[in-house]
Every structure is written in C-alpha cells, then in structure tokens.
Design a protein that fits this description.
Elements: E1 6-8, E2 12-14, E3 25-26, E4 33-34, E5 37-38, E6 40-48, E7 60-64, E8 70-74, E9 78-82, E10 90-92, H1 95-102, E11 107-112, E12 118-122, E13 138-142, E14 148-150, E15 160-165, E16 171-175, E17 179-183, E18 190-195, E19 200-205, E20 209-214, E21 217-222, E22 227-229, H2 232-239, H3 242-247, E23 258-261, E24 267-272, E25 275-280, E26 287-291, E27 306-309, E28 315-319, E29 323-334, E30 339-345, H4 350-362, E31 366-372, H5 382-395, E32 401-403, H6 409-414, H7 422-426, H8 436-441, E33 443-444, E34 447-448, E35 451-463, H9 464-469, H10 473-486, H11 498-506, H12 522-540, H13 545-554, H14 556-559, H15 573-581, E36 588-592, H16 595-606, E37 612-616, E38 624-633, H17 640-650, H18 653-656, E39 664-665, H19 668-673, E40 683-689, E41 695-701, H20 705-717, E42 720-721, H21 726-740, H22 746-762
Parallel strand pairs: 30-31, 30-32, 38-42
Antiparallel strand pairs: 1-40, 2-6, 3-26, 4-5, 6-29, 7-8, 8-9, 9-10, 11-12, 12-13, 13-14, 15-16, 16-17, 17-18, 19-20, 20-21, 21-22, 23-24, 24-25, 25-26, 27-28, 28-29, 32-38, 33-34, 35-36, 35-37, 35-38, 35-39, 40-41
C-alpha cells in the first residue's frame, strides 16, 4: 500500500524585556510605566563580523574559551578566535579539518570545548562505496593542542549523532534512541547518564547540571550526584510554546533552543524564538532578558547555531551562514518602544511571524505585538478565542490588523470591522504591483477589505485524456469511475478516508456553499456531498476492509500532517504526483504552494513521458485559488497610519521575495523571480524506500521556462477564492463522513450541517 512509503530527502536593532535593576523582567511582566514612570533599559543588537568564510558554514560550533576569547569552528572557515569581542578574528591551523575539506568528508556535527578541544561526527568522503558501514557515523576528537585521532565509539543500534562539551571540557554524546552519554576521549567508551525519551535538539551545561532539550521535553542530570532531575518550570515554559516544542529535534544544522551557564553554577541562559531568558535551576521564574519579538532571535528564518556569554553581561548569538550578533544593555532607552501596532491571528502564522521580525528590525522605534487567539497549549477553544476577539473589537480595544484565516472575513466586513484598503493596494505599482486577478477577487464595489499575502493553486496531474476531461466534481467522479474499471484494485485518487476526501475536494468547492449574503446554499452543498460520496466509494472499492483499517491504524496520522502551513500532506498535489510516478496512484489532485519540491516535482513527473500532463484543477469553483494569510486593517486601529505602513510592508518585495511555506507570492515581480532557480537549487533528488525493500528515486529539476509560463498562466487565470466560511467547512468535515460511507443520507447530512453552522453564521 502506498502509505507504507517513507520519504528520505537525500547596525543596531532594539531588543526588549529588561526593566529591573539587574536588567531582567519576569516572563509575565510587560514593559511600560511603573508609578507613572516609564520603564527604561533594554538590550541592543549589534552586528559582529563573521570570520572569513563563515557565511558558507552550515556546520558550526561557537564557544567562549577559558581565557575569555570567543571561538568559532566552521566546516569551511576553520577555527577562528577573537580576543576583542568579535571585532577581529585570528585564523588558526586545524590540520584535521583541512584534511576533511580536501577529502570532501561529509561532516554532520561539530563541537568545541572551553579548553579549545574539538570533536566531529562525519560520514566519510564522497568516493567511498555506498556500503552500510561507509554510511555509518564516524567520530574524531582533537585536544586543545590540535592533536587529532579517531574516536572509537562502540557501534550501537541507535548511533550517537551529535557531540557536546561541558563546562569542564568533558565530551558528551546523544544517541538516536534519546539517551545521553559521557564519552571517554581516550578510548571512546560510553557511560550512559540518562534517557530523555526523545530526539535531543541540544545540550546545555553548568558546572553542576547537564540540561537536555529534546522532542519529549527538558531533562536534567546532576553531574555531582549522578542523578536525573526534573525542572517543571523550565520544562513547561519550553514545551507550552507549541512552535518551540514541535521544533525540538527536527533541525539538522541549527538548534531550536540553546542554553549556557550564567553567573552561577545553577543559573542558565536559554535562547529560542521568544528571546533570551535567565533561569535558576529549580527556581520558580523565567526572567526575560531579551524579547524575541524585537530581535533576530524571533526571526523564523534565522537558525541558531551558537550562544555565548561575553564580558560585561553581554551575549553573542551565531546565526549560521547569516550573521553573528552581540547584545549590549542600554539603560537609557525605554524597555518597550513607544509606538505600537497589534496584529492578531487565530493561530500562529509563519509568514506573519517572519514579517513581524523583519519590520521590527527596520523600525526599532515600533513594537509590533503579534497576538494569537490559540497558542496550542493554553486549552483555548476556537469558539472561545473568537468570542474573546469579538469582545475586544466591540469595546474598541481590538487589534490594528487581523489575519482572517479561520475567521469569518465576510461577517467582519458586513459589520464594519474592516477598513477599505483599496487606496493602499492600488498605489502599489511598478515593482510593487500585485497580481491584479488576486486583488480583483477581493474587490467589492471598488472596495478592498482584506488581501492574502500568499496563495496556493489547485492542480491535477495524470493521463492527458483524464486531465482534460475533469472540469468539475461530477466529471472528476465520472473519470474516476471509468478508471476504476481499468484499475479494479489500488488507488485512483489516494483518498483513504472520508475525511481526506472531504478536505481535499473542499479545497476547490467551499466558497460555493454560501451565497453573497453569507447564507448556506443547500443546493450547492447537496451537490458537493453527492459527488464526494461517489468519489470516496469508488476509491474505497479498490481496497479490502483490512487494508483500509491498516491505513487508519498505522499511516493516517503521518499522512494528515500539516506541512508548515501548506495544508494536510495528503492534499498536496506534489505528494500525490510522486505516487503517480511510482505507479501507486492514477490521478493526483491537490494544492501547490511553491516551486522547490512542489511545482518542480509536478513538472518533472509530467515530463517523464508523453502520456502525463498537468493543469488547473476545478471543483465547484471555477478558476479558483486558495488565499493564505489574508490580512485586513480594522476600522478601530489605534494608529491608522502605522497600521497602513505595516500592511504595505507585507506586500513588499522584501517579504514577498522570501521562500515561505504558505504559498506563492502575490507581488507579481516576486512571482516572476521564481522562474530562476536560486543558486545551488537547480536540481534535487528524492529516494523512497518501502517496507518490502523496494526503492524509487527521482531527480527533480527546476521547472523549465515553458513550464513556468504555464504555471503563471494558471495563476493569472485564477480569479476566484475557493475558500469559504471556516465554520461551515468544519461542519462539513464533522458530519460529512457519515454521508460518504452511507451511514447517513446526503439530505440528512445537509440538514445537520446547516443546523450546526446556523448560529455562527447568524452572528
């Protein structure tokens, strides 16, 4: 079954948060005035010079050395030491690393000790035979004088994949089974210290404690007593942030969380996307030192490669291949910038987070407060979050900008919550011009109340005759039934559950379920469920009950993953296109969000032979697109001019040019620039292995000029938003399964859906 396949993808800026005498505030405090006095003092971010070649280092290690100097070890730049706080760097010879470079040895991890010792995990040179032994990890240890030797760490089922040094320059390693070991540098022998239960993201050390940040939480080991300990405050603070907890253990070249010792053996500084925090092991508080919203720490595209405490209570953070920053405290400036704008989304949005970080760095005098209705860890329901938002809006204390994904944009428009931004949008000309078809899709009697920052395109891939015949849901069902006659077993469209069919088919249909007044169009909803039922039952006919149950039990959760805001994996056209290429599926339908490993994969698969082709996929909505991160300015914005400036920034080339996961850029110049492959990304490869040992590989090439022009033709022809009311969509996904599997009639399902959605739609 196809679900058994596993993918193997071969200047100064103002920072915030310091208001007490020591320059720290508790995590729950906000900057402002105390007894009428403005809170003063925060850290400034200053760029430090990177060592020569440091902008090419993906594998790095940074360490404050015992003599007070700062050292950076990079796979390409080598070892560089600075004794003046990063102003200048002295290159030092590292013979073993030079040999690695000459032999093209693939380094997977580097570690640097306070003593100057170093260690590396590597795989071998590119000329080696692809035997299992050659692909296993190898290890090297070099003492402070540079004397290097292979580290003979015992082979285990779950190999050690990363190395770290403690404050005493002792060597430690993390295994793929979640265990942390102390390693003898002389003979490579291991002493198991603790089991984190998850994949370790990073280790932090004090003189007394080892702190492991893993996918299962924060684990502590008392190096003096030899016992595994618990720090609930630290663990909860890290794990309650859903974005952070989901990132732990997923990065390969960067870290989600980094920690180093503070001024005492039981004090640590922890750096991650929310900022830099001070914590006493076993203590009750997390004290904010630097606000991530006001720094590069909060930039989701800035990976973190190293953290060090410098002299005079300064800090250094290494952002590999990008920059090295110093953080210096200034007690003469306000803790929080005096100007403020607020932007709200129901759940965290990656594109908004990126925009906030970029705008913040360009406008240090402004605090951009990004608020989310549901953090994912506070137990807040969607219904309660929306109710709270509406209360704020009615009281006149609402946010300045709204991200409408998951909210009823049409309802807010009818109630006068959203301001007309047509003047701003129409002023965007030249290199700032937006795709007119996307803008016009949101124009109502000349007014524009919101606009998406990105958009996805529904596409279909398969045999040319079949692709040409599909013009709506009914013809899709007709073609599928015909194909089932030719292929009595196996997958046609890949919908293994009712929920998958409803979600994917809803992508090209949901805006057709309501009329212009926001009322449910029962006829359109009935037609949708009727055709969805045909499609699901035809798909299910190719599998036994046991096969369907096996999928639900073993593969549905992974296949349903939301890929960084790109939608459920099963609804990505490129994922299904790969199954078509492997012969596991006949047709691929779904959305396309970008170029790399997405549209490029579709154009590559279609180019494998004359029998395959791709095109726009129409459902109940014709010439549709899927808006992503739809933003509007509220009528009650406290500072309309500042809100407008931020709104325009969202559509600027600076943000739109970035390769973001949500979808294609709305800025036309940014869209056109996607035709050229970024340096080094002209081609990639996918290798796929199945449970029974079969393999499949595909070289993905950047879309040709002809394919890109076809993509743009599809994009500029898309003039209608496919996305409808979120509450109605949810009701369809909750009730619809019983209509598809026959437990409920379509008519009864429509009635129940209308009943569930009526209260919300009437608000």
């Amino acid at each position: 079954m196809k679900r058994a396949w596993i993918w193997l993808l071969s200047a100064a800026l103002l920072l915030g948060g310091c208001g007490s005498q020591d320059g720290y505030t508790d995590q729950n405090e906000e900057g402002g005035s105390t007894d009428g006095q403005e809170s003063m003092g925060r850290y400034l971010e200053e760029d430090m010079s990177l060592p020569e070649g440091g902008d090419q280092d993906y594998q790095t290690a940074m360490q404050a050395l015992e003599d007070g100097s700062l050292a950076i070890l990079g796979q390409n730049s080598g070892l560089s030491v600075s004794s003046d706080g990063g102003e200048t760097w002295e290159k030092r010879d590292v013979s073993w690393l030079q040999e690695f470079q000459q032999n093209q040895t693939y380094i997977t991890d580097l570690a640097l000790a306070p003593s100057g010792a170093a260690a590396a995990v590597y795989i071998g040179d590119t000329a080696a035979d692809d035997t299992e032994e050659d692909l296993s990890y190898s290890y090297l240890y070099a003492d402070a004088e540079g004397n290097a030797s292979d580290l003979e760490i015992p082979r285990m089922e779950y190999e050690i994949y990363c190395l770290w040094f403690g404050t005493d320059s002792r060597l430690y390693g993390c295994g793929l089974d979640g265990k942390v070991y102390r390693i003898d540098e002389t003979d490579g022998s291991l002493e198991e210290l603790m089991d984190t239960g998850g994949l370790v993201d990073s280790l932090g050390f004090t003189d007394r404690y080892l702190i492991a940040f893993s996918s299962e939480g924060v684990s502590l080991y008392d190096l003096e007593n030899g016992t595994q300990e618990e720090d609930k405050v630290l663990n909860d603070f890290i794990m309650d942030d859903r974005t952070v907890s989901m990132g732990l253990g997923t990065e390969t070249d960067n870290y989600t969380v980094l920690a180093v010792q503070g001024e005492q053996a039981d004090v640590i500084y922890v750096a991650f996307s929310k900022g830099l925090y001070r914590h006493v092991i076993g203590g009750a508080a997390m004290e904010q030192v630097i606000d991530g919203n006001l720094t590069s720490l909060g930039d989701p595209q800035m990976g973190k490669g190293g953290l060090a405490v410098l002299a005079d209570d300064e800090f250094a953070v290494l952002y590999p291949t990008t920059k090295l920053c110093r953080y210096v405290y200034d007690g003469t400036i306000p803790t929080v910038p005096e100007e403020e704008i607020r932007i709200y989304s129901l759940t965290e949005d990656y594109t908004v987070r990126q925009a906030v970080s970029l705008f913040q760095r360009e406008h240090p005098e402004v605090y951009v407060r990004y608020e989310m209705g549901m953090s994912g860890s506070d137990g807040m329901t969607e219904e309660d979050a929306i109710r709270n938002l509406n209360t704020e809006l009615l009281s006149g204390n609402g946010p300045d900008l709204l991200v409408l994904d998951g909210l009823s944009g049409s309802s807010y428009r009818r109630k006068g919550v959203l301001a007309d931004v047509s003047g701003l949008v129409d002023s965007m000309a030249g290199e700032s011009a937006l795709l007119s078809n996307i803008v016009d899709a949101f124009r109502e009697d000349g007014a524009v109340y919101s606009l998406p920052l990105r958009f996805r395109l529904p596409m279909i891939l398969g045999g040319t005759d079949a692709v040409n015949q599909v013009t709506d849901l009914k013809t899709l069902a007709d073609v599928q039934e015909s194909l089932r006659q030719e292929h009595p077993e196996g997958s046609i469209l890949g919908f293994m559950t009712e929920e998958e069919a409803l979600y994917t088919l809803g992508l090209v249909s949901s805006s057709a379920w309501t009329d212009e007044n926001g009322a449910v169009d029962e006829e359109a909803l009935t037609e949708f469920l009727t055709q969805a039922r045909r499609i699901y039952q035809t798909e299910a006919a190719g599998f036994s009950a046991e096969e369907l149950e096996d999928y639900v039990q073993n593969y549905r959760e992974a296949w349903s993953t939301d890929v960084s805001g790109e939608g459920h994996y099963y609804a990505n056209a490129s994922a299904s296109a790969l199954d078509v290429a492997m012969g596991q599926q006949v047709l691929a339908v779904g959305s396309v969000s970008g170029m790399s490993s997405d549209f490029n994969l579709i154009s590559t698969v279609a180019g494998q032979g004359d029998s395959l082709s791709y095109g726009a996929w129409n459902g109940q909505v014709q010439n549709g697109f899927l808006p992503v991160t739809q933003v509007g300015i509220t009528e009650g914005a406290a500072d309309r001019e500042l809100a407008q400036e931020f709104f325009c920034f969202l559509f600027s080339e600076q943000l739109q040019d970035l390769e973001l996961p949500g979808g294609f850029p709305v800025n036309e110049a940014s869209f056109d620039r996607m035709a050229a492959a970024p340096s080094g990304q002209e081609a990639s490869s996918i290798a796929v292995a199945g449970d029974s040992g079969e393999t499949f590989s595909l070289d993905i090439v950047w879309a040709s000029e002809e394919d890109f022009q076809k993509l743009k033709e599809i994009a500029i022809a898309a003039d209608t938003s496919c996305t409808g009311d979120s509450a109605l969509e949810q009701a369809v996904c909750e009730v619809g399964p019983d209509a598809l599997n026959g437990k409920m009639s379509v008519e009864d399902a429509v009635g129940e859906i209308c009943r569930r959605a009526a209260i919300y739609l009437a608000e």
